Amino acid sequence: MFLVVALAAAAAVAQGTAGQSAPAQARTPVAPHLAVALRSTRPPVIDGRDDDDVWRTAPAITDFREWDPVEDTTPRFRTEAKVAYDERNLYVFVRAFDPHPDSVKRLLARRDVLPATDHIGVIVDAYHDRRSGYEFWVNPAGVKVDIAVYDDDHEDESWDGIWDVATVVDSLGWTAEFRIPLSQLRYPIEPTHVFGFAVTRDIERYKERLAWPIFRRSKAGLASQLGDLAGVDSISSPRRAELTPYMLTKNVSVPSATGFGRSQRLSLGADLKYGVASNLTLNATINPDFGQVEADPSVLNLSTFETFYQEKRPFFVEGAGLFRADVDCNQVNCSGEELFYSRRIGRPPQLDFGATSSPQAATIDAAAKLTGRSSGGLTLAALDAVTARAKDDVGRTIEPTT
User: Of 15, 67, 129, 157, which is most buried with the most CB atoms under 10 A?
Assistant: First the structure.
């Protein structure tokens, strides 16, 4: 949990330089948490710099407050954010002032990995239902993290959106410039929109976290604490279509009468993501291959109960929170069991006739899922999959078509 779990570390208050540090006295904001987006006639160049025309005229968000480790206090360094949009994208520019730019922590890491560095995050609730949204994070080295929010405070780190960001460390601190395609967001078709919105910043060397609007640890929820972003007018709902075909060759050993031979196998497949409507998304896969997925740990199960493994296959991991239905582990078990267990799709064959060679898993021919949310707030999640018949080396069925 990136935002829901607060970092428990205290920091000494340091005096900043003039023009870069916020005033020392604490104050309570009197204005409502409302930001205004400026429509851009010319899209900005995503280079981490604010020399584009739209950033010269867009109104600035400046009322950032520290929320961790001390709630609702004045941050030691000033932060400014500006928001713009056009027919296809939402743009956000954040300036993180820092009197000592050489002390800004920047480490490289894999995508969706949160290194111990400074961060800037943008959170958007396009439905404005106070229950869902998307988080877009970046550190000074350009490492991207994106997370889907559901049920107000649950985070699905498996979600991967298509978006751009550029960062620059300069004499004033560091900046982050975001381009978030509207096709990655979900919102109703209306002439005027109000999005839930927030910008947050981490200063790693002081373990300090600040945000606009302020996140209060004394309150439950994340999406319900977002501010409002107004001024997003006359935007359409772009059609979302992503197709990823692939080809895979395998050279495998095959038992023969005299020993083992080699067999060259070729398989084709594809992944599809399509926006059926502004609030419905179809994910489909044909002949998926999960050979790159991390193997399960070895488990010795001497009980009569099934072992529940973590789902790691990308198609089933993305949006898994929509299918989550927990059970009372005191009545069943506390090893991760839920009402729906996706690992049974493509499971190891269940029949064993003592053959010398059998498939390790049933082959998934195709799978599809439809997810979305109605205008009234009802969440929809449907999944269907077909697995092929599995047989041993003498042709006996060890797992039927399912």
Answer: 67
